[in-house]
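Listing 4. Sequential folding, example run.
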Amino acid sequence: MDRIDGTNSKTLYDYANPEIDVLLKHSVRTQLESLLKTSISVEQRLVVLQQSFVEAMTLVLSEITAPHTQLVKTFENMYDQAVLSMAVAGLSQEQLTHQYISATGLIMSPYNCKHTIKDIYRIKGYARGLDKAIQGKLKNKPSINVLYPACGPFAPLLLPLLSYYKETQTYKPSQIQVTLVDIQPGAILTLKQLVSDLQLEEYISLIEEADASIFEPENAIDLLVLEAMQHGFTKEGQLSIAKHLVKYLSLDGWMIPQNVSVKGMMVVGEIEFNQQWKTQEFSHSSNVANEAQQDRVELGEILKINKSTLLEMQELELEGGIKVIPANQIVLPKGVEDMSKRIFAVYAHIETFAQEEVGQYDSGITHPRPDNSVYIDLKPKDIEHTHFVASSGDTIQFYYQLTGLPGFVPVKVQESI
């Protein structure tokens, strides 16, 4: 097993010249600016890094909602400092940029994953929920085991929270032990560097390079923290990973998120995706226009994912070894005059824990995803095998495909009468 050893052959001063390394070659402007700051001492860098993580969580956990502009500035600072640790980790070009499709979904490169740490409202919803879950568990147990699979290079849903706990002395390492798992070698190298830089080694029992969909933890898990999804609940392996790991939860173990509800709707694309955002500073559930919500034709829940449903899910294996999960049926409503002009879209609502959530448009993972292969009350001129055609009044059975390109497959149950 690959345990933390806290060693790294590169030091900050390897970059202070500055040396043009592979991260520099593949950087956006913010990273270039961050790398140029490496003239500060190691001690100064670590102080600034640790403070940036604590400051972000202080704002997130406060009962007073911070202004969006303040959150943006604070999270950008945390991102900049985390990228410095990635630079010091010395990833090769291959380790930094390798991205591929596995048997269960897209495996994003460490380079592309790093942006998650500045996804404000995703982290806020998870961190607040996870904080409440940890409080709840430690009321009845002296210590807990937390598993965070597919955590990426920065483990953004947990490392900032642990930094806050350490700084405020809220919880000691003897109370929380964390296992971090990721399949990407570059993510593992960065994690080790970042954990060391944040001085969180005592909270981390294991950092393991492994496929989360087959990883077997040594101990029962009290909290399973998982976010491996994209908008419309497609592309990444959230369901496959959750379905595999849920059985390792202790009898009273909890999943974070506690519940994910995936729903479908028919929308006018111009209203939903353009007009309602023209006057808004940023996309967020609190900024969704009432007119746009009223214009939607909600179809209902397609799939619910929580501990109970995961334990009960049955797989169907089709020819060629393709596996699918039967989801829900919906009936397409009648009487919608402009149904043929509407777009089918899928969106997820995420309840992390104890009424904390990530709502529509709060994050990229909850943005509604339009599906232009679905035609309702409209037949395309040239039907392709990827097109799905149905009519108002039809009953639709949804399946979720567990392949390298996971996503929903609608099947018509009956013709409209």
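-- end of first protein; second protein begins --
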Amino acid sequence: MKKMIVTGITTLALLTGIVGGIGAGNSVEAAQTAIKFKDVPATHWAATAINSAVEQGYLKGYTDGTFKPSSPITKAEMASILSRLSDQPNNLNPVTNNFTDIPEWAKSGVSSAIKKGFINPANYKGKLDAKASLKRGEMAVWLTQGLATVDSDYKQALDDVQNTVVPAKEYFTGNLTASDKNAVAVAMGTGLMSVGSDKQFGIDRTTTRAEVAVLIARYSNVAKTKPADFKGLNELRQVGLTGTNLNVITSVFKKTAENQISLKGNRKYEDVTEDFSLVRNKEIATDRNYADLKVLNWIIIDTSVTKDERSIYYPVFVDEGFKLPEGTYYSFTEFSLNIKSTMNQLQAGSLLNSVTFDPLTSPHTKAFLSYAAPKIGDYTGNKGVFVAENPIYWANGLLHFNRQVTRAITLETKEGAVFSIIDSK
């Protein structure tokens, strides 16, 4: 990829994460060396990125002296821009451009974008819909496919996040399609793209020329970075593979020693594991028989770290600036219940004797409510009685560490596996 020096992009530009389109075609002419667009004042959030992208030939201005930063970009135009990324390697298994609807001016660019791994014709039925505006979901797919061509570990990451929790409102409301989910997760985990102020990723939103200018610079930086260097991506991968981000957030918990755990029935210490994936989505042995219970996901958040070191899930569950007392992490658990007869909220809280895995209440922060994630109140009615037989919701608890009196955190499955960890300090 061509080197890009895009310093001075405003904080807003970096945080909005929205990516978009670019102009190409017969109506666009090269800008002068001294780039001055009358519709891109110095105060525009993407002014620096726009000027940098134009200087390097990725984008062009119009003959009337405008850049049209808010104009949407078409698929053909974006493909042509991606084809200009000279440092992007070609796919080792080249695919033929079999699209039948590409404008003559864009055929070469689309073919090059395919060779560079951004576009996979197998995902289409012979037509790219080249003149249609490129939407953010498809943009995420193209860019992460490009990353997978740069580094095979990005390709592995796309597989690893298949079952992850995506920190976007569409995920929690069930509106994130399977075809977009993996790409959205990797795009967010690397910082390429993010949610907007409404907490939506915006799968179906079109992208603009200004957004693309910022995105091109981001892609250049991400492509030069190893996937393992992105904490957010590491969390998303671990949650996808194991059901929890615990080992990314902290290393203080280890498998509970044999002399520190009391096992029930005929279970043996050989049944004990620190691998959460072995108890994820399994029926858990409960203290009460009101319902069968499964733990689908378990998210840990450390509120004591700096903003740059925060969990990628912090904005979903925790309000800005809130800090827990020292020695405590937040514990957020996604529970699936199969209620046997009738059960109220207090009885749900008695299913597990744990402050860490506690089905009693859901987070009530402004952040959590803004993401519209399923909560216990969605399934309970008069006097807290559940009105649904099979609720799935997020609950909040606490994970303590560095205490004088330590206690193992344990989940026992009905199948026999026992997840048990303890503070190792």
